[in-house]
Amino acid sequence: MITLITGGSGSGKSAYAEKYICHVSNEKGYKEKYYIATMQVFDDEGQRKIDRHRRLRAGKGFITIEQPRDIQNAVSKLQSESSLKTGRSALLECMSNLVANEMFPPVDASGIQAAEAEKEALDATEKMKDYETAQISHVSKKVLKEVSILSKNVAELVIVTNNVFEDGVCYDQSTMNYIKAMGIVNRGLAAMAESVVEVVAGIPVAVK
To answer: Any known ligand binding at 132?
Structure first.
């Protein structure tokens, strides 16, 4: 089962997601409860966010998996093969970081080579002249496919995503491409999910 939890920055969606998955896991007796973290640290603010989330999770029995890209690879890091999908739950946080990491890979020498290889693959597979359009399509399809694979390996998957569409600000083209990809991913996740909840000022509102 997939539950999608969305909300703006500071809405309380993370705290609600953790409370929700802890309640469901305890109620259904899941033996393993995973926290799949997608955020990469680039500055002090990012580190403070990670530290805050770690404090929120402390003592709640989460097994943490760091997976900033290629989310399907988290499947191989699930500890118990014997429990399969019946004995474990996972909280994936969050989609905004995951999509950003997929769209904007590292820029060191290996990262540049990886990005160039990915561009060539996009041009070949998508058969599009517009690389940016191809990138949006490629990233959104990749993320949705890999989340679907992850969901088939846990009994309960709770996904946190960001509402990044309502500030009315005109951004540069790369950011607008990211927002477009987020829109596609969020719509796809909402279609896949059995339940969608928007958190507004700390209050969960059922959408689906």
So the answer is: no
